[in-house]
Design brief:
Elements lengths: L3 E4 L2 E3 L5 E7 L6 E7 L6 E7 L4 E3 L7 E6 L4 E6 L8 E8 L5 E3 L3 E5 L2
Parallel strand pairs: 2-11
Antiparallel strand pairs: 1-3, 3-8, 4-5, 4-9, 5-6, 7-8, 9-10, 9-11
């Protein structure tokens, strides 16, 4: 059973930055990434990074967000810059194991507002 613990959410003004971090128990994940879910909207993929280092981003965050992972610490971070009100959502960390199975974090709230 993989457990994911997220941190780093909060309230930030438009144009500001936040860094989300997710620590995973276990290792050898094929994919680590982030989804988000805004109020009354479906969960959407934000970004992911594969075991080989390939990254992919949603078009709405490309150029503003950067995902990175630390294999030694089994963490995946999401650096979010130039935040917009429409980035407001609960952000969920996820990993896909080699089985494959998908595990989710509990979610962390990000609110972008003046």
């Amino acid at each position: 059973q993989v457990q994911l613990v997220e941190s780093g959410g909060g309230l930030v003004q438009p144009g500001g930055s936040l860094r989300l971090s997710c620590a995973a128990s276990g290792s050898n994940f094929s994919i680590m990434g982030w989804y988000r879910q805004a109020a009354k909207k479906e969960r959407e993929l934000v970004a992911f990074v594969t075991s080989t280092g390939y990254t992919n981003y949603a078009g709405s965050v490309k150029g503003r967000f950067a995902i990175s992972k630390d294999n030694a610490k089994n963490t995946v971070d999401l650096q979010m810059n130039s935040l917009k009100p429409e980035d407001t959502a609960v952000y969920y960390c996820y990993v896909r194991t080699l089985d494959p199975r998908i595990y989710w974090g509990q979610g962390t709230q990000v609110t972008v507002s003046s």
